[in-house]
Write a structure and sequence with these properties.
Blueprint (H helix, E strand, L loop, with lengths): L9 E5 L3 H12 L3 E5 L3 H8 L10 H10 L2 E4 L2 H7 L2 E4 L14 H13 L4 E5 L7 H12 L6 E5 L9 H6 L4 E4 L3 H10 L7 E4 L1 H32 L3 H10 L19 H15 L4 H25 L6 E5 L14 H11 L3 E5 L4 H7 L6 E3 L3 H5 L4 E4 L11 H7 L4 E4 L6 H6 L3 E3 L4
Parallel strand pairs: 1-2, 1-4, 2-3, 4-5, 5-6, 7-8, 9-10, 9-12, 10-11, 12-13, 13-14
The structure holds uridine-5'-diphosphate-xylopyranose.
């Protein structure tokens, strides 16, 4: 029997950030014809010559392959709109000072779509947005569109993790599509046809809320175990064994139960804030979300207090900071827990030597070299003559450290493991003092 050929679409992805660029490159890999648009001319030029703007495993190769075939980068949104059947909006929704999401970029894109709509278009929200954004996009296009061309609006939130983005795109736990018409549903199902993942079809409001609820729940899970880790410390219990046993209960699940210095990155902090804000605006004071954030904010100070208990006065003590990015396999420092900890240590008068396997360039922009902050070229240089080595990101590189060699060069053998990533027994056997979280 002849297998049904599935239609390949002309897709425009607006925004060449983490979500947009990964989606564009992956849609191209699925053989759709893709134009990825961004307002940053330099970024677009680089991308057209196969250079990607951030570290993401395997993305460079995917982009380079796509550029040779069916992936184009452009700054011309009006033209891209005219040429496409489906437009994915993946522009930034950064946090405003009041915690709400800044939807200016989305509003602007909706206007450009309205003014350039020349045939039926499916406009899909991919950025993380507060509920009712799809409704607003629809109103905007309806009000400002030229002529009477038909369109649909849909929501297709992205759940990819930085550092695992390509894998997450091709093997998602589920694909969520929020639609209002059978036509939109059919198109989105065809776009993702070859992925063979479960597709959950909802209305647009529900799809938008699924993303905020999912990220907030994951943040809650981490804050919960971090709060439990405080009780473990007080009780002399071990949070690692505790979370292992808790996670064996299928209803709880083992993921996102690692206690540590807290969650960061560009998604959890802004999404928890934005979900709190939109819930309030709708009439519900989501106090649980506020506490999830509070617990997270306390972890950095708690970690520094533990170091102080061991070293007493931090002024002029040398502390090595290993790991700066908000998690491994990314060079992203946005809202990384390391930032708050570095600030606290600097305020205590400590001298810091910073090292990260991928985020050094970003770190040099964020923290200026000073009498208190220097940058090291590897873990051993960072640790040399230090009174404490802090692990703030669980990079694989740190798992192969020769701790004997490191100890010989240290001023005082203290290890502060902010991610519970080291074998406590092994480390203490080597003669180190060990600080963990809840163990
Ligand atoms: C997250 C969501 O996982 C993803 O679905 C969404 O699309 C974007 O936001 P990401 O920001 O890439 O992805 O990071 P993630 O891997 O979820 O980690 C977030 C933070 O939680 C990191 O700072 C990480 O170190 C921390 N974390 C994670 C813990 O502290 N403990 C854990 O057990 C798990």
């Amino acid at each position: 029997m002849k297998s049904k050929t599935i239609k390949k679409y002309k897709i425009c992805v607006v925004g060449a950030g983490h979500v947009g660029l990964v989606a564009a490159a992956c849609f191209a890999k699925l053989k759709h014809e893709v134009i990825c648009v961004d307002t940053d001319k330099q970024r677009i030029n680089n991308l057209n010559s196969g250079k990607i703007p951030f570290y993401e495993p395997d993305l460079q190769l995917l982009v380079a392959k796509g550029v040779k075939k069916n992936l184009l980068f452009s700054i011309n949104l009006p033209e891209a709109v005219k040429k496409s059947e489906v437009i994915f909006i993946a522009v930034g929704t950064p946090p405003l000072p009041d915690g709400s999401a800044d939807l200016t970029a989305i509003g602007n894109v909706a206007l450009v779509i309205a003014k350039n709509i020349n045939s039926y278009k499916l406009v899909v929200g991919k950025s993380t947005v507060p509920v009712w954004t799809g409704k607003k996009i629809k109103e905007t296009i309806y009000r400002y569109r030229k002529g009477k061309n038909n369109f649909d609006v849909a929501s297709n939130p992205e759940f990819l993790r930085e550092g695992k983005a390509i894998y997450d795109f091709f093997y998602p736990d589920r694909i969520v599509i929020g639609v209002e018409s059978p036509r939109a549903e059919k198109i989105l199902k065809e776009i993702y046809h070859s992925l063979k993942s479960k597709i959950v079809v909802t209305d647009i409001n529900t799809a938008e809320l699924i993303k905020h609820a999912s990220n907030s729940f994951l943040a809650a899970k981490i804050s919960f175990i971090n709060a439990v880790s405080r009780v473990c410390d007080l009780a002399g219990a071990d949070v690692e064994k505790l979370s292992l046993a808790m996670g064996m209960d299928k209803r709880i699940g083992k993921d996102f139960l690692n206690a540590g210095i807290g969650w960061g990155g560009f998604c959890f902090p802004k999404d928890v804030e934005a979900f709190t804000y939109i819930s309030k605006k709708l009439g519900y004071d989501f106090k649980l979300l506020k506490e999830i954030k509070n617990i997270n904010e306390q972890q950095g100070q708690y970690f520094v207090d533990k170091i102080k208990e061991h070293l007493w006065i931090l002024k002029a003590k040398k502390i090595a900071i290993l790991g700066l990015s908000f998690k491994p396999d990314t060079d992203d420092l946005r809202f990384a827990p390391s930032i708050g900890i570095i600030e606290l240590l600097v305020n205590e008068g400590a001298n810091l030597s910073l090292y990260d396997p991928q985020a050094m360039a970003e770190a040099k922009q964020l923290f200026k070299e000073s009498s208190q902050i220097v940058f090291a070229s590897d873990v051993y240089q960072a640790a040399k003559e230090s009174d404490c080595v802090c692990f703030l990101t669980e990079w694989d590189e740190f798992k192969t450290i020769d701790f004997r060699k490191m100890k010989k060069t240290m001023n005082y053998p203290l290890i502060a493991d902010g991610r519970n990533m080291l074998d406590k027994q092994k480390i203490t056997k080597l003669g180190f003092e060990y600080i963990g979280i809840g163990r």
